[in-house]
From TrEMBL:
Keywords: Aminopeptidase, Cytoplasm, Hydrolase, Manganese, Metal-binding, Protease
Gene: pepA
Residues reported to bind Mn(2+) 2: 281, 286, 304, 365
GO molecular function: manganese ion binding; metalloaminopeptidase activity
UniProt protein name: Probable cytosol aminopeptidase
NCBIfam families: PRK00913.1-2 (NF002073)
Length: 519
């Protein structure tokens, strides 16, 4: 993990490989942002014009390197674009700072130390720059080179992030303008470090190939982290699942040689007044089962456990932050494979709730494991349940690759979750649960079918899950199918591959619940 320090040093005197400054897009060309005054002065006040000569505009994420001025101990100045100049010169929003810091950190791969002289007005800005830099510096290289670390996921902690066949991640970031003795600044960095370390652990899990991360291995990783951070862990294996009547999880996992698991992670605070339950879909590989996915749709299906990875990271983050709220995480883990023992289209499963489900499509498996876990989570009578899942291609069709959908049985809670997601920089959109779509899941054989109308398929899946939420419990469903795995080029602080989508939303939800901001 990239080290992060607070520094009051002048940019000119910092021993580093590069100094990072912000540049915005003004009406008449690039504008040097606050925090870079001393750097601009060293260029005789002409840094903006030099950058413009080099082709820089200040556009978001744009990176321009130039030789440092005479007298600087760092040899390079890196200017990163912040986008349009804000109405108030110092009022860059938090995610603008995160994205800029992330882009700079990615561009500085292979260097040991960099000083970030980005606009910092308060502790929130310190936290945003810290998060962006630590997330942007992430890389997953466990399977490159001599292969000594490739078993990292098998219960021995997360994979190490270090280059074996390429540039190592930026090793250290010094936040210039932040105050090492300021309690708020220190707290912001400590929070950013805890959350980003766990988010990056989630990314590691998502990126780990399924031959090394099956349900048992995932459960082992979760158990080891839980014990390290004082979180109680309970793992139900295939025998316990059968004894308990978890027909959904067993029905999905029965076709694989790697049996399913249901993991319960419990973080408790003696000062808690509220209890949140997070439920994550953890399909460690999804072939589609008997309803086999077509060619070209299998290669990234190791990411189908991204919801469980997000829940795992959020619970451990809550423990590390010592939040005054009880948080329970449920990881519904299975591998969906075709075989002679696999569930067939037309089979009927008896769920943990007692309801029966006619399986019309074995590739609609995520809702089956989630339904059992949601029912189980409801038994603890939490104040709210939030499930997270790479659930439907339909949600990707509706919202694209960077935005997740939010459905809920309570409009006010859905609005709150949406506001929180936007606050932490995770694009999302509130989606409806139209009652008329329930009719499409009528089954002549069972209580409900696992498929309904094709149009609005993401909403149908949400309606299915709602059927398994305990009476009187507030619930929200996050369909992260789009943003969970980035197949395009990296951008901002988002890498190619697993992203850790929804982790920061869940953590902020827990923080606001602990503070009493959600009623």
């Amino acid at each position: 993990m990239t080290a992060l320090t607070l520094s009051t040093a002048a940019a000119s005197g910092l021993r580093a490989d590069a100094i990072v400054v912000g540049v915005a897009k003004g009406a008449k060309g690039p504008v040097v942002a606050l925090g870079a005054e001393s750097v601009d002065k060293a260029y005789d006040g002409k840094l903006a014009s030099v950058l413009e000569t080099l082709g820089a505009s200040g556009g978001e994420g744009e990176v321009t390197k130039l030789p440092a001025p005479s007298g600087f101990k760092a040899p390079v100045v890196l200017a990163v674009g912040l986008g349009a100049v804000p109405e108030k010169d110092s009022a860059y929003d938090a995610d603008t700072l995160r994205r800029a810091a992330g882009a700079a950190a990615r561009a500085l791969a292979g260097t040991k130390r960099a000083g970030f002289a980005l606009p910092i007005a308060d502790a929130a800005d310190v936290g945003a720059v810290a998060e962006g830099a630590l997330l942007g510096a992430y890389s997953f290289d466990a399977y490159k080179g001599n292969g000594k670390d490739t078993k990292a996921a098998k219960g021995k902690g997360k994979a190490e992030n270090g280059a074996k066949n390429g540039k190592a991640p930026l090793a250290e970031v010094a936040l210039l303008g932040a105050k090492p003795r300021d309690k708020a600044h220190k707290a912001a960095v400590e929070r950013a470090t805890a959350v980003t370390e766990e988010l990056n652990r989630a990314r590691d899990l998502i990126n780990t190939p399924p031959n090394d991360l099956n349900p048992e291995a995932f459960a082992a990783v979760a158990g080891a982290a839980a014990k390290e951070h004082g979180v109680k862990v309970q793992v139900l294996d295939e025998k316990a699942l059968a004894k308990g009547g978890f027909g959904g999880i067993l029905g999905v996992g029965v076709g694989s040689d790697a049996p399913p698991r249901l993991v319960k992670l419990s973080y408790t605070s003696s000062k808690a007044k509220k209890h949140l339950a997070f439920v994550g879909k953890g399909i460690t590989y999804d072939s589609g089962g008997i309803s086999l996915k077509p060619a070209g749709h299998n290669e990234t299906m190791k990411c189908d456990m991204s919801g469980a990875a997000a829940v795992f990271a959020a619970v451990i983050s809550a423990a590390r932050l010592g939040l005054e709220v009880n948080v329970t995480g449920w990881l519904a883990l299975a591998e969906n494979m075709p075989s002679g023992s696999a569930t067939r289209p037309g089979d009927v499963l008896r769920m943990y709730s007692g309801k029966t489900v006619e399986v019309l499509n074995t590739d609609a498996e995520g809702r089956l494991v989630l339904a059992d876990a949601i029912t189980k989570a409801s038994e603890d009578k939490p104040d709210a349940i939030v499930d997270v899942a790479t659930l439907t291609g339909a949600m990707m069709m509706a919202l694209g690759g960077r935005t997740f959908g939010i459905m809920a049985n309570d409009d006010a809670f859905r609005t709150s979750v949406h506001e929180i997601a936007e606050e932490v920089g995770e694009p999302s959109w509130p989606m409806p649960l139209p009652e008329h779509l329930l009719k499409g899941m009528d089954s002549p054989t069972a209580d409900i079918a696992n498929m309904g109308e094709r149009m609005g398929g993401g909403l149908v899946a949400g309606l299915f899950l709602r059927e398994f939420v305990g009476e009187g419990i507030t619930w929200a469903h996050l369909d992260i199918a789009g943003p969970a795995y980035n197949e395009a080029a990296p951008f901002g602080y988002t890498p190619k591959g697993g992203t850790g989508s929804a982790v920061r939303t869940l953590v902020r939800l827990a923080e606001r619940t602990a503070a009493g901001d959600l009623g």
